[in-house]
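Here is one chain, start to finish.
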Amino acid sequence: MITRTSKVLLLSAIALYYTLVSFNNLTDFDSNYQFVRHVLSMDSTFPGNQLMWRALQSPAFHLAFYFGIIAWEIVTAILLWWGAVRLLLTMRLPPAAFNAAKRVPVMALTLSLLMWLVAFLTVGAEWFLMWQSRTWNGQEAAFRMFAVAGIVLIIVLLPDTEAQA
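Its structure:
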């Protein structure tokens, strides 16, 4: 039961994180919008770099990207909470039922990993050269969350057995 409880608690902790991130982005919209705007504008990359043609200066693109990130976060939060509840409801059932309930949490954690890997580390850091910015560089935070979600995904994927029930 301890292993199952651990999985539910870790999943709930990430769900809480995404809930707070979504809430913050909706209630203090401009703070992270500025981050997205600067990354997409590439206005703090190395002077004279040859990849400035990638920069997006349009506020419409900035808003679209930011709304996309917020929507991704909200969907991830909902799936994480749904997954945590599914696991909680199957905690006292046989291992096969608990293992089957992992489908939603696996989907949610994969969505989380993809956000950090694709949106932040690939598109932001590499395509828009966020890594060149001292001010608008979110690589460390993105990697940290990618690692946390990845570790929790591995823990959730560990099969539950009769000996643990």
